[in-house]
């Protein structure tokens, strides 16, 4: 009997066995790699997390660390307790702490333990000279700010500098916050108290360990910008407590954002645009988010979107956009979402120069996925999608490079904001309310203090409300401005006002009663009373809801002349090309019919302002 050997089948079987074997090896290698990656970010072990807190409390009991929250963490009747370990690595710890059954805060630090490598100690021995120690500490603050903010503060006195960084009610030794540094020299130059020296050494070392942490420095320096960054609630040793934010990639939030419902998408898009606008214009310099993703953003209880993780947020000229060796391609000069440029002739990166911007990354990474075509209402569909496309892929290219996208235009941001504001107003949702929160109560937040006056022997402040135009600024009695954040805003306003008056006095001019610039006052007056000053045949019947507007009569809008409030709704005064008359039209309608005219009106009247630079005493 002749046996036939099917060599093709045997060869195929052997090949299949080899493929399976290789697949198993690759699977194991990938798993092993993933394990190492997971170890790098740190496995959260509750026992180890509790050890970190216990070690911190032991140092507190020995008098080696201090802080405004140490007693709440470490006393027998501690009110702040470990609830969950969120992240634990050699470079960062994030622990969820419970204050009661339903309230949580977050404990954070760049290091697990205090002074394991003697990096947290500014003074290794008890200080001998109090003035000399404080002078050293102030110099460290200035150099640290220069390293993290890209600018040093040369025109602030020592006492103003320390107050800019630390709240008075969280400092134990009042000597740090004396009214004038000269008073410290006079009082303590020839005076030494051992217990005070020990206490001051401990507190200065504690504050030094916090200052070297980028997230803490950024959040605490800009603590009045509580709508942008998490509030710092206090500290103990090298750890600090912040408010609890829910990450935007939380399953419950993602379920709504990626559903077919339009309003949650419109709300989040509008809030993200506001956040990008604020980081570009409201700090001393643009803040570049080099890791722009939903997991690094969080939402607070009152609906503010904030920067949850700022480890990879840099100011100008501080972005690490250069490789150790010569570059070969543009990506060699980039740092995650911050794109750099490689000069292929010299093989060198353009140092510390970003090509794209936050808005372009937001549109490219988030909005193109969030704003799906099928979920956008037809009235906005084509226009909004075209804006997102232009924003994510701007028409220009840096130095004619096909690989590098330039930054998106801020005008696109304004246009999208106007459209989305109209949508949210139509749905009776303010910009400060989250779509999943209780919408029955409207919340008002103070954005800044604009001016002050005395009326009937009572001090009043002119308040700019967040999410509302300048035309809706109101005078409020000082008794209505309460709370920690409001106190910070008042302090900033008074400091800036005092600085401006001092400049006027030094120049020999008489100080003006109103601290606003003449242009700003004229703009506000025109916005608030524009209806009375325009000779445009606007009669009383213009207010009637039965009178058809120019849009309904087929007219084309020529210009927006003013803004006002009517029965709780924002109205815009619109001039028509076909008529000498003007009509009051609801802003939500004008926003959709001619958004570019609305943008022009806002830009002409200084609705968006950049804050003074770091080198000004604000």
Tell me about this structure.
The protein is α+β, with helices and mostly antiparallel strands. It has 6 domains: 14-42; 46-109, no CATH class; 130-211, no CATH class; 246-426, Transferase(Phosphotransferase), domain 1, CATH 1.10.510; 444-516, Beta Barrel (OB fold (Dihydrolipoamide Acetyltransferase, E2P)), CATH 2.40.50.40; 517-618, Beta Barrel (OB fold (Dihydrolipoamide Acetyltransferase, E2P)). The chain contains 17 helices and 18 strands. The chain has helices at residues 7-41, 46-61, 70-74, 130-149, 158-165, 181-188, 194-211, 214-221, 251-257, 262-281, 358-370, 381-392, 410-426, 484-507, 518-533, 587-593, 595-604; strands at residues 81-88, 93-98, 104-109, 232-236, 239-243, 246-247, 287-289, 297-299, 305-307, 313-315, 342-343, 348-349, 446-455, 458-465, 474-477, 557-566, 569-576, 582-586. It has a 5-stranded antiparallel sheet, sandwiched between helices. The protein has a 3-stranded antiparallel sheet with strand order 6-8-9, covered by helices on one side. Strands 13-14-15 form a 3-stranded antiparallel sheet, covered by helices on one side. Helix 13 packs across helix 17. The longest helix has 35 residues, at 7-41. The radius of gyration is 29 Å and the shape is globular. The model is unreliable at 26-42, 431-443, 508-546 and 606-618 (pLDDT under 50).
């Amino acid at each position: 009997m002749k046996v036939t050997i099917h060599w093709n089948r045997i060869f195929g079987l052997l090949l299949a066995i080899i493929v399976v074997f290789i697949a198993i090896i690759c699977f194991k290698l990938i798993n092993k790699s993933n394990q190492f990656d997971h170890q790098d970010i740190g496995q959260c072990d509750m026992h180890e997390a509790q050890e970190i807190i216990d070690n911190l409390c032991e140092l507190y009991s020995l008098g080696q660390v201090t802080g405004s929250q140490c007693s709440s963490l470490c006393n027998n009747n501690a009110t702040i307790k470990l609830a969950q370990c969120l992240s634990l690595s050699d470079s960062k710890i994030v622990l969820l702490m419970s204050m009661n059954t339903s309230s949580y805060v977050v404990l954070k630090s760049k290091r697990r333990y205090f002074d394991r490598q003697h990096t947290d100690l500014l003074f290794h021995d008890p200080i001998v000279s109090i003035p000399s120690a404080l002078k050293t500490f102030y110099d460290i603050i200035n150099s640290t700010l220069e390293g993290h903010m890209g600018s040093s503060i040369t025109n602030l006195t020592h006492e103003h500098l320390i107050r800019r960084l630390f709240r008075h009610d969280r400092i134990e030794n009042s000597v740090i916050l004396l009214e004038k540094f000269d008073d410290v020299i006079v009082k303590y130059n020839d005076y030494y108290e051992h217990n005070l020296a020990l206490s001051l050494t401990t507190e200065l070392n504690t504050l030094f360990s916090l200052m070297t942490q980028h997230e803490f420095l950024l959040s605490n320096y800009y603590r009045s910008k509580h709508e942008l960054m998490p509030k710092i609630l206090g500290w103990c040793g090298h750890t600090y407590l912040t408010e609890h934010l829910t990450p935007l990639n939380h399953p419950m939030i993602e379920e709504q954002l990626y559903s077919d419902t339009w309003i949650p998408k419109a709300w989040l898009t509008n809030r993200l645009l506001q956040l990008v606008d604020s980081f570009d214009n409201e700090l001393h310099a643009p803040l570049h988010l080099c890791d722009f993703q939903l997991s690094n953003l969080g939402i607070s209880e009152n609906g503010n979107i904030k920067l949850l993780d700022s480890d990879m947020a840099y100011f100008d000229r501080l972005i690490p956009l250069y490789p150790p060796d010569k570059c070969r391609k543009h990506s060699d000069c980039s740092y995650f979402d911050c794109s750099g440029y490689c000069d292929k002739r010299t093989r060198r990166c353009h140092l510390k120069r970003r090509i794209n911007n936050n808005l372009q990354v937001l549109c490219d990474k988030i909005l193109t996925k969030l704003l799906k075509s099928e979920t956008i209402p037809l009235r906005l569909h084509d226009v909004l999608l075209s804006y997102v496309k232009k924003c994510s892929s701007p028409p220009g290219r840096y130095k004619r490079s096909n690989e590098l996208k330039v930054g998106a235009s801020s005008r696109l941001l304004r246009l999208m904001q106007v459209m989305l504001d109209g949508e949210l107003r139509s749905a009776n949702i303010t910009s400060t309310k989250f779509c999943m929160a209780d919408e029955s109560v409207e919340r008002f937040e103070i954005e800044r203090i604009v001016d002050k006056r005395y009326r009937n022997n009572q001090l009043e402040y002119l308040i700019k409300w967040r999410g509302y135009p300048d035309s809706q600024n109101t005078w409020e009695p000082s008794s209505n401005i309460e709370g920690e954040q409001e106190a910070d805003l008042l302090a900033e306003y008074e400091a800036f006002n005092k600085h401006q008056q001092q400049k006027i006095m030094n120049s020999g001019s008489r100080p003006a009663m109103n601290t606003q610039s003449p242009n700003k006052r004229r703009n506000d007056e025109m916005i608030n009373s524009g209806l009375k000053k325009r000779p445009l045949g606007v009669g009383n019947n213009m207010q009637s809801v039965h009178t058809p507007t120019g849009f309904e009569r087929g007219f084309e809008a020529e210009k927006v002349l003013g803004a006002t409030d009517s029965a709780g709704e924002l109205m815009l005064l619109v001039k028509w090309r076909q008529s000498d008359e003007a009509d009051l039209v609801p802003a939500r309608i004008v926003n959709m019919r001619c958004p570019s005219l609305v943008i022009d009106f806002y830009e002409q009247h200084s609705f968006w302002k950049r804050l003074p630079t770091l080198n000004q005493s604000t």
